[in-house]
From TrEMBL, chains A, B:
SMART domains, alphabetized: HTH_LACI
Organism from which the protein derives: Ferranicluibacter rubi
Pfam families: LacI (PF00356), Peripla_BP_3 (PF13377)
Classification lineage: Bacteria, Pseudomonadati, Pseudomonadota, Alphaproteobacteria, Hyphomicrobiales
Protein's name in the database: Substrate-binding domain-containing protein
Xref: SUPFAM superfamilies: lambda repressor-like DNA-binding domains (SSF47413), Periplasmic binding protein-like I (SSF53822)
InterPro entries associated with the record: HTH_LacI, LacI/GalR-like_sensor, Lambda_DNA-bd_dom_sf, Peripla_BP_I
Gene3D superfamilies, per database record: 3.40.50.2300, lambda repressor-like DNA-binding domains (1.10.260.40)
Domain of life: Bacteria
Keywords: DNA-binding, Repressor, Transcription, Transcription regulation
Transmembrane segments: none
Coiled-coil annotated residue ranges, if any: none
Residue intervals of the HTH lacI-type domain: 6-60
DNA sequence: CTTGCAATTTGGATCGATCCAAATTATCCG
DNA sequence: CGGATAATTTGGATCGATCCAAATTGCAAG
């Protein structure tokens, strides 16, 4: 109490026991007598004691720091914000707190924050890697035995666990949906070609095209930054061509909304003159006009699962890398032609 | 090195100096000889040394923990995600890391995470308080001398610093804009009536109405949850009335987009049949159709300023509560009637 | 009223870095 | 070269909790 900070020793003195006993109470040990426990707890409350985890961690393995790191490539993207919220939910319930850092796709930033988190003694890390991340960026962590879960994007070659959405199946289903509606010229909009996700989704698109008995046409693939503004430009390019598509699948919902914009700029009405399927199912997908048919990924659910996977590894003590693929599902709304539903019923 | 963890003592041994010297190197002290410093640094690199801040903090004041806490009421709202990003930017540059927790407006969660952060030794806290937060919720922190900055929402009676946007002036400007365009029946949509922000914005609306020489009509105020879905319902109520408004200001952009939806449901075109002004200037405001005229708040900028304010107080050592109001500005786009601009030029 | 055994409690030693006073080494100058 | 001064370096002591072996207490049986 001397300098304002209350320690176990102050509690011990005030409660008439030893600091060891106070420590046992703090840990909820069954060894301590019920009466003693009650008194110690009362004294702690009276003196306004604040547990000092830093001091405790000094004697314990870092697995007990009750801190996990979360590194995200773009928190301004609501997909990743949802992901972070999902993680937060689970870790809070487990009594952990999270260091959350945003890298804005900067590898340097990513390296810095991971180093900083290590210094602070995180028990594990969930990371949505910045573009261009390499296995070596996580080498130090892995060889120190720290559990690491990569989400959304894979890190080729790294011995870390991963949690990815089923990009191939999702895009396959999107194409299948358009093909069933009778579309024969289906475009693919958006995404950076040098990313693994793009390749997975493109492969799903190709396989979907093939499964529908249509011919794959490279000229119908319009890659671009996965943003709304670029999506609008991409569809403009598509519609300027000779043999126009009549519908398209998009790398993500942001691109899909950009396609809306681009169509309207040409006086075409999305969902009427052109069929669109998104990917992600962000919140706005359900409220936009027309409501967007899309592949639902449930980022918050992914966040929860990633956190659970990480906590499992932390508790197990050993970081056995495992790869999990989370299912996605097609949510049919109105952007491929209005399909009226009873109000109040959600689309499956 | 015994159990895998490298400590200052291992470094000292390997470099042939004392642990004190290693410590001085770690702190970048000018007392240590340049040659020694180089050698020690080299050894640290070779052995893969990881600084243990927990141990260091034990001997230092909590102001040097290099951790700040960030508590946000709703991270799924992109406004707050941007805010968090702004904070992150500044604290990362200052060599801090942030604990980021989402409360989902739950006071219990808020209390829990703040307690947890305290145990982990944060140097200060930026909080966007959950609805219904009271001064007592921050009492313990404040009396422990911890710097606290409340952002976006005030905490009545709490002796904490605050950083608020200029809600009154913003809404005043919004009303003024509509009045200048000739609107005489201007509605107010959205927001919870029991919040301080709602009251501030409503006051700005009233004063704007008065300044324009129009009469205040309580029947034109349509409070509701500040969400897109509720905004749509609110405008439906407004248009069902006898003496309809011809334009409206919205509690935030989400409500404004809801108003778009509600108008379209009645076959009215926003920006043509009805003028709308939002509040916040979220990213979608610039890309929606029609582009939304709104009051720009710049949440990322607020985050940066909040972080700077907090860091200033942490470095000063004493938490002198101060209140900062950040300016807002009207961004005119197309939702109050199209005003064409040269393409490529951004609206001011 | 012992003895034996289980239930509680306790005093160092310890984790990894910092701090401080004191020791050591280097440098300078008459 | 000696003594003073400046530049470096260093050995405990310390932060606040945990761990462990050892001590103490409680209680029932003999």
């Amino acid at each position: 109490m001397a300098n304002g900070r209350v320690t176990v020793i102050d509690i011990a003195k005030a409660a008439g026991v030893s600091k060891s006993t106070v420590s046992l109470v703090l840990q909820g040990s069954p060894l301590v007598n019920e009466g003693t426990r009650t008194k110690v707890n009362a004294v702690m409350r009276d003196l306004g004691y604040v547990y000092n985890r830093g001091a405790a961690n000094l004697r314990q393995s870092s697995a007990k720091s009750k801190i996990i790191g979360v590194v995200v490539n773009d928190l301004t993207n609501s997909f990743f914000a949802e992901l972070a919220v999902g993680i937060d939910l689970v870790v809070q319930d487990a009594g952990f707190v999270q260091f959350l850092a945003n890298t804005s796709e900067s590898l340097d930033r990513q390296t810095e924050v991971i180093a900083s988190m290590r210094e602070h003694g995180i028990s594990g890390l969930v990371v949505s890697p910045a573009r261009g991340s390499r296995a070596i960026d996580f080498k130090a962590l892995v060889s120190a035995g720290m559990p690491v879960v990569a989400v959304v994007r894979p890190v080729p070659g790294a011995k870390v666990s991963s949690l990815m959405s089923d990009n191939h199946t999702g895009m396959f289903a999107a194409v299948e949906h358009l093909a069933k509606l009778g579309h024969t010229r289906i475009a693919f909009f958006g995404g950076f070609e040098d990313t693994a996700i793009f390749q997975e989704r493109l492969a799903g698109y190709r396989d979907g095209i093939a499964a529908a008995g249509l011919g794959y046409d490279e000229g119908l693939v319009f890659a671009c930054a996965p943003s709304r503004a670029e999506g609008a430009k991409a569809v403009a390019r598509a519609m300027a061509a000779d043999d126009r598509p009549t519908g398209g699948v998009c790398f993500n919902d942001a691109v899909a909304f950009g396609v809306y914009d681009g169509l309207r700029a040409r006086r075409l009405e999305p969902g009427v003159d052109f069929a669109i399927v998104g990917f992600d199912d962000v919140i706005e997908a359900g409220t936009s006009v027309p409501a967007l048919t899309t592949i639902a990924v449930d980022p918050q659910g992914m966040g929860r699962r990633a956190a659970q996977l990480l906590l499992k590894q932390i508790n197990a003590g050993k970081a056995e890398a495992e790869a999990v693929v989370t299912p996605v599902r097609l949510v049919v709304r109105e952007s491929c032609g209005v399909n009226r539903m009873k109000p109040g019923r959600r689309s499956a």
